[in-house]
Amino acid sequence: MAPIKLNNPVRLHPNAAWEKMANPRLSVILPCYNYSSYLPEAVASVFDQGVEDVELIIINDGSTDDSLDVALNLASLFENQAVLVIDQENQGQPAISRNNAIHHARGSYILPLDADDVFAENAFIAMLSSMEKSDKKWTIVTASMQRFGTDDDRWTVVPFDSNNMLRRNQIPYCAMYPKALWEKLGGYNTNVPGYEDWDFWIGALTEGAHFLILPMVHLLYRETSVNSMMDRGVSKHEYNIAGIICNHPHAYEDDEVEWALRFRTLFPKHPSKRGFYGLDKEFPRVAALLILFYPKYFPEEQVRWCEQYIQENPLILDRGVKASPRMQPVQADSPNEMPVATFLEGYQAVLDGELDQADQWKAEYQKNLPYKALRREDHRDSGPTPTVSVVIVAYNTKQDLITCIESLEKQQDQDFEVLVVDNGGNDDVWDQLRTKKLLHIINPANLILSEGRNIGAFFARGQILAMLDDDAVVPSNYIASIKQAFATYDIDALRGRISPKSDSPNNRHAQHYDFGPVPFPSPIDTEGNSAWRADVYREMGGMNPLLFGHEGTELSFRIAAARGAERLIYWPETVILHDYAVTDTKLGEKSRRHQAMKEYLHHLHPEIEQFIAVMRQPLYKQGGREAASQLIPRIEGKRLQASSGNPDLIRRSNRMTPDHTERKQQVLR
To answer: Which string of DSSP letters, residue by residue, matches 515-565?
Structure first.
């Protein structure tokens, strides 16, 4: 039996009848928080049942109204009925209140009641009779609930299915069970606020409990009760489901357990709002299961995705409440002391259009970035410091990532190193990565491309940072072409040219991939084929970590304001093969995400469209590109100097300092 955690001290106020009663059959547990106006009706419904040997335990959860006084008066009013009033500091959830009350309960059976609900007539007689006739070791008895004053608005308990119960609750909170079962389970778990009843029933199922559903209405409930209960649980739905799975891992599928452990590791406390926080991409089947069983809790777009996913991937479940224990439970990776939850909250705020809130999350995240705590495996050569550091941020790319790395291995110029920043979903190719000469950095969650590149820049040794898409393929002159640009021009960054990797029709949306054979000043808007002076990248604070789309343009704006727009160029000699979006689904996701990111970009820099327009002018003028090409500063006999930037400078916030104002005005003219 697990130890039952109680939140004491509590103050006991028994009436005389409670002190005289020795062995009640039934203990009714009634938590109350600021429901003094409903409490008399609830208490009356207990004693109107006409059943002897019943004790009522009212637990006042630190109410700020007169609930305690009302409870004490009711204990005096019903002087011939056993009433114990317990007073405690506010604990904020029914699980704690019930555990504290049941600890003092003396009945053989327990029956919870919320303070704003009432029992239907003859509920106790029917439930106790069924309970005492049962020959099962553990029996739980319940029935249907009905809203006050409405004949047709009833929660009728559906035919019970123990395995469906794992993913959708079928039992109301008000059900009768043996106190010995509560002791066996260690009480109600307190890590699933609002879903503590569902979690308790699943625990009972795994102990072999039998659920008996009576064909009657046993409880009348108020709209306020259902709303408050649902608000508590539904507002934390994914967090609570993850908690239930972690509490009962032997009953769930391996990927459900892995997802739940990961979610709860990232969010020891529930996030500010609901969401998968990127884990739906890594665990699509788990996301589909969650949506399938509670579709009304999710946006229509996610429901449509779920329907399509299930059509293409039938959901086969191998485990259940009777499954044997796992020999080797799945473990979640440690968050490595990174403020991951803060980052994920900030990114979600951007997607939701809460831009001021996103800025606050970003500032909190950037207060302390212990990149050195990240897990990593270093298989790079220990020879001379390379000129170029190729940073590949990978998420769920798997074999395409290996193909990308193998194209780098065929370079004519070997003066480079490779850093793979792994945002997740690539476990299947880790053994292959260990055979490659690279630094493998393993993030505790999907920190998206921008922050992944910042992390790569922190560990890079080269003077030039080459950012490469994880599913791209490069020709044998890729490294040489980058070095050529920085040896020819006195520049801070370049964006290359991109050719389609396939004949996907979605590539037509990437009209910015190829601007022809002439170099000219340009914002860096193909981040997956870009290269940056490492010292400048770090000095400017890297990319905005919350931008997943337009992040190169945003950093270009800051560099141009600080150092000059002519130091950012389109360089046609650096070519990669890459597709814009391989499926229509990914195209839609990309378009929606880019729109949200564009709003955030305008929030950060309201004047950025003017900057982009000025930089793009050569594209629309006859001979404009050739003329603009002459503006690129050349290196006359001097070579790129070793980086003097401090890697720790990447921790600086993405803001221009006051002395950049004059330069910014020049850029916009």
So the answer is: --S--EE-----TTEEEEEHHHHHHTT-S-TT-SSSHHHHHHHHHHHHH-G
What are the beta bridge partners of residue 217?
Answer: 144
Determine what percent of the chain falls in helix, strand and coil, rounding each to the nearest 5: 45, 15, 40
CA 644-649-651 angle, 5° bins: 160
In the predicted model, is pLDDT for residue 335 greater than 80? no
Residue 56 · residue 75 · CB < 8 Å: no
Are 650 and 454 a contacting pair, CB within 8 Å? yes
Distance CA 49, CA 426 (A): 61
8 Å CB contact between 31 and 101: yes
What angle do the packed helices 661-668 and 608-616 form, to 10 degrees? Answer: 50
* DSSP code at position 306: H
pLDDT tens digits for 158-217?
A: 778 888 999 999 999 999 999 999 999 999 999 999 999 999 999 999 999 999 999 999
Give residue for tokens 């931008």. 547
User: Given pLDDT bands bounded at 50, 70 and 90, which one contains residue 646?
Assistant: very low
What pTM, to 2 d.p., does this model score?
0.83
380 with 408: CB under 8 angstroms?
Answer: no
Structure token pair of residue 5: 């955690």
Contacts of 84 (CB under 8 A, 6+ apart): 12, 13, 14, 15, 18, 55, 56, 57, 58, 75, 104
CB-CB contact of 450 with 544 (8 Å): yes
Closest-CA residue to 352 (of 590, 599, 587): 599
